[in-house]
Amino acid sequence: MPSRSTPTDVSSHSSESALPSTESNHNDEVAVLTTPQDSEYARLTDTSQGRVKAAFVVLARNKEIYALRSSMRYLEDRFNHKYNYPWIFLNEEPFTEEFKNMSRQMTNAETYFGLVPTEHWSYPDHINQTYAQECREHMRAMGIPYGGSESYRHMCRYQSGFFMLHPLLDGLDYYWYLKEKRDLKYGFTIALGEYRATVATLWDSTLEFVKAHPQYIYPRTRPDSLLNWITDDNGWSYNLCHFWSNFEIASVRFMRSEGYQAYFRHLDQAGGFFYERWGDAPVHSIAVALMLGAKDVHWFYDIGYKHDFFEHCPTGPSWLTLGKCYCDPNTSFDFTGGSCIPKYLSVTNRTTTDFLVVQPEEGDED
């Protein structure tokens, strides 16, 4: 799940929540699980069963070390101190020793530092840089966030098609196993709409790809097709919905697949990363919606997350008690204007409780 190292609040389970509620038996030697939910939760949080081949991937600059340390502290305190998943840091410039030392101090897990290849953070030969600059100036004048930023466009291009190819990710699966025999290829927490001006021709380029490469497209006739989550008119236009990539858990195999990489190459050739401001989030999201089924995608409803002004917090009162989240459900973005969660639930024919790791007993309230 690549991200820029801006301050992030992840409020999943606390260390105490890994311990089921117990009561002593008559000889005070054996702890007894009190409810089926306790038993299920204990199974899912049992760290003795090993872990998936996964890692945290962070795209960061040396000057962002303090923001990074804040994000790491949240993740380590709320989750990773139990699992010790490694951290992979990537930068278009060599990391300083200060950055390396200060990031290592925040975790007991292994840390790896990699350099982004120059060809992945520079203009392709087919890009007219003069025109690209004019496009940036036009978007800056329009007041579009990051509209005038050159580095932001390089970052979006890199995270759209190159980060998953870095050799430090070799050997990782990124599959997230929530239930036995269920493997997922993409997970998210927040879904919202994109600025239309930044992706004006993204859908046109996507339709060109779909027409040229139908073999990579998930059949739209299947009941778990996600096509109608990203379009309101049966595919004629893009409705701007996307999974926010500030928090994403993805399968390396999927991101490296020929289908996804062919899609990225097609978009890269079109030039929209530089002539517009195509973001990695809508690129990832459109690929997921076109190439995967709903069974392959998971909304991490039970993980509280906040970035900038957007926050996801589980809204079921019983889950706040069971999962020990400390976020405020009243500030959650999920069901406010601009959120694409309601449409996602409608298209997939699901409710929030379908995404709980620990399901309530039948007859209980959500």
UniProtKB/TrEMBL annotation:
InterPro entries the record matches: Glyco_trans_15, Nucleotide-diphossugar_trans
UniProt-annotated catalytic positions: E248
Signal peptide interval: none
SUPFAM superfamilies in the record: Nucleotide-diphospho-sugar transferases
An example Gene Ontology molecular-function term: alpha-1,2-mannosyltransferase activity
GO biological process: cell wall mannoprotein biosynthetic process; protein N-linked glycosylation
Region (Disordered): 1-29
GO cellular component, one term: membrane
Biased composition (Polar residues): 1-24
UniProt keyword list: Transferase
Gene3D superfamilies: Spore Coat Polysaccharide Biosynthesis Protein SpsA, Chain A (3.90.550.10)
Transferase as UniProt keyword: yes
Annotated family: Belongs to the glycosyltransferase 15 family.
Database matches in PANTHER family: ALPHA-1,2 MANNOSYLTRANSFERASE KTR1
Protein name: Nucleotide-diphospho-sugar transferase
Source organism of this protein record: Syncephalastrum racemosum
